[in-house]
């Protein structure tokens, strides 16, 4: 066992796990090697970990020299960082051990980045198809952050999503092919009847998501798309999905409303997106900072005003409705 209260290896910064504030420990997890267990109850939006990479794949100069490039970069690290790297899980033992440690543990440093990072602690976090935490690269900190998105009980495993979405057979196939393991998360291990129900919901979610992402539908049948968004949100609630699928859905709804000139609702959904990003990536999340201006003025976003069919002013958000009436307004269900 490697308790998280020990000093992080050189190059790895770990702001939360000081001896005074131990949120988690690294422990053996049945069937998954090691993993992170919560040491205390953790609430959503709590920063669990913020960590700089031990090193990045920027040192790789070509496919042919990958192993040699990595060996050189590794030798340049302090001894404890080298040990931390070499102790990480290798899912593909045999030739090219360094490349395969990267393959087993690397995270891209941002959604569009070709550069991967290896982390002493974050790389120990196992996958779940219903994760209770979300990771993201914070370019302002130059660190990967992990925030809780659901309440996590002391003793519960902290989990991230390596790949999200779809019914269990699709997910299992992708995880096996892309990451080389058979997923045994709590969703994939549900009893058959429950798994079937969950799969049914997630197949429906996939179809709804396809419709919501279809620009023709958003342009010509926005009322139907908005209805599908509401159904999808209901499925996410039922399935306990609070990862980036949820913030993406909020952003999609923002765009549907904004595209048709409904600035009042667009502003509400932009705010929901920002709040969810604050929970999953912190108040200094780039996505949050970039979207905040559209809460104030949705018309500044590129999606604004292809039509004015739903035209409202931003100030038209009602203030005196009860919850039920407000929800009806929000989903454009009032006459
Ligand atoms: C990035 S490592 C995570 C930490 C690793 N368990 C360890 O011992 O260092 C990824 C590996 O953990 C295991 N793993 C992660 N999530 C899993 C899951 N849901 N089911 C089964 N094995 C899992 C697999 O062996 C996978 O290749």
Automatic annotation (TrEMBL):
Database matches in Gene3D superfamilies: SET domain, Tetratricopeptide repeat domain
Domain of life of the source: Eukaryota
Chain ranges of the SET domain: 19-163
InterPro entries given in the database record: SET_dom, SET_dom_sf, SET_domain_protein, TPR-like_helical_dom_sf
SMART domains for the chain: SET
SUPFAM superfamilies according to UniProt: SET domain
PANTHER family: SET DOMAIN-CONTAINING PROTEIN 5
Protein name: SET domain-containing protein
């Amino acid at each position: 066992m490697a308790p998280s209260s020990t000093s992080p290896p050189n190059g790895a910064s770990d702001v939360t796990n000081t001896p005074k504030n131990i949120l988690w420990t690294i422990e053996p997890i049945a069937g998954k090697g090691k993993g992170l267990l919560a040491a205390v109850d953790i609430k959503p939006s709590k920063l669990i970990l913020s960590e700089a990479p031990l090193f990045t794949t920027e040192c790789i100069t070509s496919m042919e020299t990958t192993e040699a490039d990595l060996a050189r970069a590794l030798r340049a690290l302090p001894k404890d960082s080298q040990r931390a790297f070499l102790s990480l899980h290798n899912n593909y033992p045999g030739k090219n051990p360094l490349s395969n440690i990267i393959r087993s543990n690397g995270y891209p440093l941002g959604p569009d980045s070709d550069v991967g990072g290896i982390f002493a602690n974050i790389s120990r976090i196992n996958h779940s198809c219903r994760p209770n935490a979300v990771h993201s690269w914070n370019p302002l900190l130059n660190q990967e952050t992990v925030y809780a998105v659901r309440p996590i009980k002391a003793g519960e495993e902290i989990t991230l999503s390596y790949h999200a979405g779809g019914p269990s057979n699709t997910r299992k196939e992708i995880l096996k092919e892309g990451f080389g393991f058979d997923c045994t998360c709590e969703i994939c291990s549900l009893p058959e009847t429950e798994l079937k129900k969950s799969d049914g919901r997630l197949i429906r979610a996939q179809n709804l998501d396809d419709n919501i992402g279809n620009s023709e539908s958003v342009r010509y049948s926005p009322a139907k798309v908005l209805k599908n968004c509401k159904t999808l949100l209901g499925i996410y609630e039922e399935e306990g999905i609070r990862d980036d699928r949820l913030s993406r859905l909020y952003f999609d709804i923002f765009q549907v409303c904004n595209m048709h000139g409904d600035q009042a609702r667009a502003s509400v959904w932009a705010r929901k997106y920002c709040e969810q990003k604050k929970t999953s990536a912190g108040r200094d999340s780039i996505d949050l900072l970039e979207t905040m201006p559209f809460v104030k003025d949705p018309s500044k976003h590129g999606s604004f005003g292809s039509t004015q069919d739903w035209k409202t002013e931003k100030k038209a958000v009602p203030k005196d409705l009860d919850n039920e009436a407000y929800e009806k307004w929000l989903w454009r269900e009032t006459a």
